[in-house]
Write a sequence for this structure.
């Protein structure tokens, strides 16, 4: 694979990233069509139900697609979903070569798109900038391969690892830049999830506020059309419907309390989902399986130490985003995670992938080491 392939695939990935806030349940995909070393068509997938990246790029390229090379960040589809197969579109346009970053993990495609192209006499290669492409669609891939969403846990802490005062007071540990970053994390998620403790303590709404996203007009408008579903884990139905969380839009409440309250939630525009559990605690894996079945790719957990700790203990966390503020909250403040451990050997091992400054705070991205 040539340097040129990398260059054009990098451009296709950049286009794909424009769909970060709007394509779910679909993956983010970008496409670049190149004739004689020049880009003649570009496209990206914006919303499920709307044309795929290849369609936009082919439209722009017109006749210049004949004999050209198409760079796509995901294997072109071969099935009739909400839209017709892109592999057929590429064949009809007469492209000479297709370069994909990765195979489509969707079992309806899974190699069939590339095979169909090859059978039509098109030169096909796959795997250019694959790890970048996989990172962009970690949620879609996890759902397709494991039937579970990608779970990202956001935590905010002081330099001494505390997350709230003993009273529960936690606003604000981090500064405005970190909070804007959290807004973008919410907007890119299919679900923003929290627990009863957090809602009762902070009166959190878990909404995306368009003016705080710091995105351009086009992406902000797209994000607004596809806000994440807000999910409350409330095993014992402790959070009253009068809370702000329930006033700002529809929500899903996962509970293991008797579902007799369903109509009361429904009347207010919310869904009550009965999930098995024990001792008033929802079985989080079962909840995630149900969310994935509904097309949820990425879940952002913004919860207190108990619920975040429960996700960690159940081995359900794919990534931590820990915002670290230049403050010391002291010894009576609350720890970041409720994770009772006695021996060093029991401590979960993480790998830090990235640390960056966000305003006056620092953002640490870490993933569990899977042994
Ligand atoms: C592509 N290019 O830009 C995207 C693809 O319901 P549909 O028709 O939108 O199909 C959705 C499926 O198509 C999705 O699950 C994934 O397998 C593939 N997405 N494929 O060739 C694109 N977004
Ligand atoms: Zn397609």
């Amino acid at each position: 694979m040539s340097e040129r392939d990398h260059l054009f695939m990098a451009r296709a990935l950049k286009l794909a990233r424009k769909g970060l806030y709007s394509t779910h349940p679909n993956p983010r995909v970008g496409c670049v069509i190149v004739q004689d070393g020049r880009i003649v068509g570009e496209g990206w997938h914006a919303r499920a139900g709307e044309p795929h990246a290849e369609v936009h790029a082919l439209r722009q390229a017109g006749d210049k697609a004949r004999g050209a090379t198409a760079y796509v960040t995901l294997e072109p589809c071969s099935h009739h979903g909400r839209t017709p197969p892109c592999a057929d579109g590429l064949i009809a346009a007469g492209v000479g070569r297709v370069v994909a970053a990765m195979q489509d993990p969707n079992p309806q495609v899974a190699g069939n798109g590339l095979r169909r192209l090859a059978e039509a006499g098109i030169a096909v290669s796959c795997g250019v900038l694959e790890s970048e492409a996989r990172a962009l669609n970690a949620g879609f891939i996890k759902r397709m391969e494991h039937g579970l969403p990608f779970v990202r846990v956001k935590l905010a802490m002081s330099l001494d690892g505390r997350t709230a005062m003993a009273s529960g007071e936690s606003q604000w540990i981090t500064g405005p830049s970190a909070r804007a970053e959290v807004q973008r994390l919410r907007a890119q998620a299919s679900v923003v999830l929290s627990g009863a403790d957090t809602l009762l303590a902070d009166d959190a709404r878990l909404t995306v506020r368009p003016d705080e996203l710091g995105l351009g007009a086009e992406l902000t408008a797209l994000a607004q059309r596809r806000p994440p579903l807000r999910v409350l884990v409330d095993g014992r139905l402790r959070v009253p419907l009068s809370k702000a969380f329930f006033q700002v839009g529809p929500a899903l409440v996962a509970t293991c309390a008797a579902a007799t309250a369903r109509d009361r939630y429904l009347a207010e525009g919310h869904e009550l989902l009965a999930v098995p559990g024990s001792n008033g605690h929802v079985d989080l894996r079962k909840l995630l399986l149900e969310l994935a079945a509904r097309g949820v790719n990425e879940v952002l957990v913004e919860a207190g130490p108990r619920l975040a700790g429960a996700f960690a203990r159940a081995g359900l966390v794919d990534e931590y985003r820990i915002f670290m503020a230049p403050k010391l909250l002291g010894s009576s403040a609350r720890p970041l995670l409720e994770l009772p451990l006695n021996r060093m050997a029991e401590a979960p091992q993480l790998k830090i992938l990235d640390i960056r400054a966000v305003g006056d705070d620092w953002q640490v991205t870490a993933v569990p080491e899977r042994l």
